[in-house]
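Batch queue: ligand-bound targets. Current item pairs a single chain with flavin mononucleotide. No template structures supplied; prediction is de novo from sequence plus SMILES. Inputs echoed for audit trail.
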Amino acid sequence: MPDLTTTYLGLPLKNPLVPSSTPLSHKLDAVLNLEDAGAAAIVMHSLFEEDVRNDEQMLERYLVHPEPSGEAAGHLPSSDDYRSKLDRYLEQIARLKARLSIPVVASLNGSSLDGWVTLGKEMQDAGADALELHAWYMPGDPEVSGAALEDRYIALLQGLKAVVSIPVSMKLSPFFSSLPHFVQRAEAAGAAGVSLFNRFFQPDIDLTSLTVVDRVQLSTSDDTLLTMRWIAILRGRSNLTLGATGGVHTADDALKMLLAGADVVHMASALLRRGPQALKDVLDGLSAWLAEHEYASVAQLRGAMSQRNLPDPSAFARAAYLDALDSFSAPPGVRY
Ligand SMILES: Cc1cc2nc3c(=O)[nH]c(=O)nc-3n(C[C@H](O)[C@H](O)[C@H](O)COP(=O)(O)O)c2cc1C
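Prediction returned. Tokens below.
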């Protein structure tokens, strides 16, 4: 039986499969089922700073008008049973910690320094083993440079690291002009890991109603390629834990991420589509492949095909783009 153990943000894990942030962690039973299927840790759904602020504003309104009348009375909670999103999130951390034997990673989607620091500290105090920070501003202001945005992410990370002692990972978007440079800065600022990449749901236009609509789009295995390339480039250039998130549905997908250099492989869409069995299948497939190819451990495999370890490093660089363009030929039966 190959040794599947790995280290994630300094935490020892029994294997590299970690469900990433999804609504599944709202339900204790769903997370227990993932643990039974073999999950080595769990990243919780994100707590959004905006939601916490909205709750605070509602509570403030309620305190100013403690006895609403008429229609308003039906919309406001009673003072005794009011539990904010933050309360519920912290309770869920405590509940998961009490029932699971695997590490619990809380996830924070914040936008202000104050929000990150306060909420991150509360999550630590509730028992989280680590924090994953999802930093993302929609860069729509032409006056704000990419460098200024990156400075802001780093300042948020430093502010948080000043008050929490648990490891902190940053979940990044693929939209950095120089990802290795930013990752290097995050490491210097105290991050323990990076998770590549967050999946963004793009608004669509409904041509019937002429409205902008949001819909959840689950990934497919084709979505592994972007993450795999960047994991391969970063392996060996940083000591951070590299978490691969995006498109992992099969054991082959997970193996490729590990060969590229991932320390852990996250799964989300596959779990939402197929349930915990998807994780079990990947885990079984991973063990079987390692045994069949005579690898004694995941550690032996990790990064074997990172950019640094390839005889031709250009395979993950610009040359690959040119080769891909050259190799394109018309599909059968199509004439241009
Ligand atoms: C329905 C849904 C909800 C998600 N919620 C969060 C979230 O709250 N916070 C977060 O950082 N990522 C969230 N994600 C992103 C996933 O954690 C994951 O990074 C992304 O979906 C890519 O992995 P996948 O290809 O395995 O789905 C969500 C994804 C889905 C599909």
